[in-house]
Each structure stands twice: as structure tokens, then as C-alpha cells.
Amino acid sequence: MVKAPHREQLHVWLDDPAFGPLQQIGILSKGERGSISFAYDPDWLTQAHAFQLDPALDLFPGEFYPGGSNFGVFMDSCPDRWGQLLMKRREAFEAREEERHPRTLDPWDFLLGVQDCTRMGALRYSLPGQGVFLADEALSAPPVTRIAELQAIAFELSRKKLAAPDKIKKWLQVLVAPGASLGGARPKANLIDEQGHLWIAKFPSADDDYDVAVWEKVLHDLASNCGITVAESKLMQLGDGYHTFLVKRFDRNGEDRHFFVSAMTMLGRVDSDEGSYLELAEFLATFGDPDYLAADLEELFTRVVFNVATANRDDHLRNHGFLRLPAGWRLAPAFDINPSFKKEEHVLALDLHYQQPDLGVVLETSSYYRLEREQAENILQKVCEVVASWKRCARHYGLTKQDCLEAEHLFCVR
After folding, report:
1. Domain ranges of the chain
2. CA–CA separation, 206 vs 241, rounded Å?
């Protein structure tokens, strides 16, 4: 008798009150050779509010296989580059202690490595036959009162040359546990405030040569003043070094979770693929919630204008995303908004191909956002008026005249 091949499985759950009570929506499997597959739960396919989790996962029974290592929607549940770096360092340290070669971690390992408490979006995972969610440890996100300790540890772990092994072990035990699955490569940790709300703290890195957090806060405030939806944010200085930027998780409302996916996933792309803002507009026009479509397209256009005006050029598809409602998709709040001191082009094309910062090119695309020319010009004028106050905002947060002089060329104001 031929032995059935061994498969690892995870039950996939949707925990978003917009779609009713917690429900199992499918099974994610990993074969002996590492191949990934997914099958929807039959009950999910009968739900009136059922939706595709991923462009590659049509609402049909049977198993689906990704074109790459995993489906984009489950990659969005994995740690970001910083989280993966910590997991790799922990594996290397444990291998040294156990006198073995380090394992090469794959997407399945990364998926298993994020704490349930901090996992981005509303997908949760459990092992077959177990009544608890994967990595559902109590207090897996530390309290905000430990932020100074976490910043110091993150700074040390961001160094290229690490300290003694005993220190590394202690640091990793503290920092890896919370996990993280928001985009980006900067040192960060999830924290819980006194009211139980989840925040992300983005710490200084050992490689920083300017105060990244202050500039992110400046752009965050300017974006809000332009009418762009952003989550609540704070700036903290812990010690004499650079600041830490804290931002409230927009995929949480108290203990409720909201289903989030990256634009990378919904456009069916991978990290090396090119993209354009017009593709984001087309996605919303096709799949957006009709009640919010006009507002979301207008805000998306506003974001493009703002990103050009403030040199937010690291605007790749993982730095945009969508939230799911029963009637369709909504534009997620803007995040990872930073001026790019070293990038001369946008990652995303402003039209179909042009990546150079040019407000005139953006204005010519206004019809793709279902805007009249006059509407688009008014938006551009408002954004430029708000962005013109950038120096006052920067000085308010402690940046010097010299800091502003060095950033002068980044801001494009008519």
C-alpha cells in the first residue's frame, strides 16, 4: 500500500465582525516538497458575503496552487523584512547553541512566526484539532511602558556587527515574540497602550544619518491636513538620540479586526514587478464599495499629488492597501509616508510609465480618478498650499534650519 504523502495544514479563519462571527474559510497546506495549496471551506462558498481572498483564489471548490512560493494574501500575514531578519537571527543563534547548521526559513516558517495578537488584518490560523489560534500567547505584544527598552534592543539588533551571544539571546527573546507583519524594513515592534489599543513603534536604526521618525511625523501631519486618511500618530524621544514614531494600527478597532490586504496582493504582483497609480485607481473602479468609490478615487488622486509634492517616492505596492467591506473594497489609510532623500524617481508610475516627480503629469491623469479637470486643479492647489507649510511643521518638531535647508529640494510646491 502506497503511503499518503505528509502534509502540514493550517485552518484559516476570518475574524472580522463586518462578516459575522468568527468563521473558518479554508485550509492552507504545505506538501512534502514545500509546495503550498489552499482550498476554501465549503460553507464559506455558500455565504452571501463570500469574497475572493486573493486574485488567484476564485470562489470555487477544490485546491488552488500559487504561481510563486505562496499566495499574496498569506504573504501579507507574514513578517516584514525586519521581522524576517529577527527570525533568521534567532534561528542562527539557536543552531549555534544546538551545534547544527541553521535551517533556511521559507514563507511557511515566516507565516508560523507571527504572533496572533499582532498579525496584520483579520486572518487567523490554527493547527488541525487544536482549539487555540497559532502563536496566541498571552501578552504577546508588550505594554507601551517598555518602549524605551524595546528601542534600545532594536537599535542594537539593527547593527551589522552584533554583540556577544548571551546578549543576543536575551534581546531576541524580548523582541521576536511580538512579531510584526506591516510592511517595511525599519526596526519596529507592536505595543499595547493603557486602553488596550495596538500601536506600531518605528525605532531609529544604527544606520540612520538623519531623524527619520521626525520627517515621517511631519509628512503624516501634512497628509492629514490635505484630507488624506491616516491613523493616529505620536512622536517620542527616548534618550538623546533620534526619535521614535508611533502609529495606531488601522486594522484594529479595540479588539475587532478588519480584513486588510496589500495592493501588491490585489494586483497580483510580486516585489520585483512594476506598477502604476492608475492600476490602483482601476482596481477601485472595478471592485470598490460603490458607497465610497467616488471619495476613495478622489483621495487616491490626492495621495498621488501629495506624494509628488513631498518626495514620498518609496511608494511601492506594499505601501498601499485595501480594507474589505461586505459590498467591496475601500482604500486603506495611508501609511509609511516618508520623504526620500536618496530616491529621484517614484517606484510607482504616475501614469502608465512615467516615474519622475511631475505634478503636471499627475494632473493629466485626473480622468482616471473620475475627476473633472477643475476638481483636480483645486485638489492640487490645496495640497500645494498645505505642503508649503512644511518648514513650520518641521521646526515645530525640533528640526533645525540646517535640516530644513538640506530637505528644501524635496518639496515641490507650485
Report:
1. 256-410
2. 11
